[in-house]
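Hi, here's the filled form for the chain we discussed.

Project: internal
Contact: R.S.
Residues: 650
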Amino acid sequence: MPHGVAHQLIASHLVDGEMTPGEEIALRIDQTLTQDATGTLVMQELESLGLDRAQTEVSVQYVDHNLLQADEKNAEDHAYLRSASRRFGLWYSQPGNGVSHPTHMQRFGKPGKTMIGSDSHTPACGSLGMLAIGVGGLEVALAITGQPLSIRMPEIWGVELTGELPPWCSAKDVILEMLRRHGTKGGTNRIIEYHGPGLAGLTAMDRHVITNMGAELGATTSVFPADDEVRRFLAGEGREDDFTELLAEEGTEYDVTEHIELSELEPLIAQPSSPGNVVPVREVAGTPVGQVVIGSSANPGLRDFAIAARMVEGRQTHPGVSFDINPTSRPILADLTRWGGTTSLIQAGARLHQSGCLGCIGMGQAPAPGTNSLRTFPRNFPGRSGGGADDQVWLCSPETAAASALRGEITDPRELAEELGLTWGDLDLPEPTVIPGMLEEPPPAEEARDEELVKGPNISGLPEFEPFPDAFEVPVLLAVGDDISTDDISPAGAEALPFRSNIPALARFAFTRIDPDYPANAEEIKDSTGHAIVGGANYGQGSSREHAAICPRWLGLRVVIAESFARIHWQNLANFGILALEFTGEGDRDKVPQGSTLSFSDLHEQLQKGSEVVGQVDGTELTFRHQLSDRQVRMVLAGGLIRQLAEGES
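And the returned structure, exactly as it came back:
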């Protein structure tokens, strides 16, 4: 039977299990990626696991999220991360080098390899024919020690691309079209594999845009073949020897199929406040705009900045618009400058920021209240921008962003091109710049063992959690709606993220966008009863940050009951000994309101016996279900994976 790219990647790294959708499998991992917002916990976990030297082919620690140094906290963590990278044998990318995903793609991406990262946009490297999956930090730590990754075998969703993109449409419109069709849950438990003749018109960086935002569909990952375009990309980075052709075999059949005729696409935009809330730009044209930001891992390539520079060249952006440019790496900024685009942007009124995630993670560039902010970013969840829960963030292509910056209102770039006589065509971009020594290579093992870990006072260490009880009675402290994101649970932004290495301090921010009193109420009963949380569909969508599990756990969270869970957060809950249950009947969610009391008994036996769990809500019996494997059940009962490993269990 012919196999596609995703199937070949999984088969070549399969350690255990059967490749049947829904069954748990274990995969050998070649590379890992960590960034500073999640990496500090990973390094603490490596300490707890007693690691001597990284066992992967390549592991890299990037500093790209928490770049603002308003006080000593972020700088403390950067020093700790560098020392831990040297001690454990990881490459280190210092602040200002660039966003982790495109930088990793440029320097380390390699067709045919597997990679996991403690960042949900890790699938971006699928653009090169890699199996790249976003996971929780603890799973990355285990992979660095040489352990395989355990996941449920996804379905393979084959998306055939035909035709060519029309003028003033780009790769961002392709992934926005997928989100328009399927929303933020359409890719759950699926790998999206792109194929077809339409690939010929998409560069490797175009493909990066598409695979990066596959995370917003809820997909396990997205992959493209390693074809001649990937060879060309690697050659431009001075790494053609890293190329290995990896193509779908002729006659490949997929579990699920989709077709996109690229020539029929038009400029699209995601309205506030979900990446799945997509409409044509023409339908919202004329909406006033106060901020436009170009950059992020979702539009990282030189072409994305260059097209904006070409559009604003010789013109001034609207005086009521803050036009912000976030270069995604030092080499891309160097190339843009060499080409002349940096000057064009600055002369047009752009504010040039350092290379990094910045506004994408709410670390600066917060919009004013009530101001529409157009961004070429991957996410626009409420409050993520740092502008408050009522922020108005829209997601669009660089073409739509630049056109809107000139007009001061949402503008279809096709309309502006006709008005100004703009031409569409080859930008004649320079060959990529490679900066030797930009990333710090780990020292030899014998030297690394003498490396002292640099820990400032804001690094608290990992909390220790007790085993999961066999019976308990807890109040439902919080009941929330559908599509609760990890930004809702553990907020990003300049106020909270500097405490990412200090769990007790960071826990004070948990759920405060929804209920400001939650942390205080939870801490009051954490040592007596603990508590439960009830959610709706797609609970825990978005970022992979395991802080969204560990902070509520520190506050006494025992169980989350929801209609469905996002994959990464569901796994993170198990990793830290929190029981994730699902409602079984229509209307059952309404039977467990905030303030009700949940009680369970004989939980150990129930969890080990099957998928159903019976509890009581204010004395009335109700049946729930779980989707944990036997391995995960043992993990939860032990009180989490770290305690389980410390006690020598498996």
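Let me know if anything looks off before we file it.
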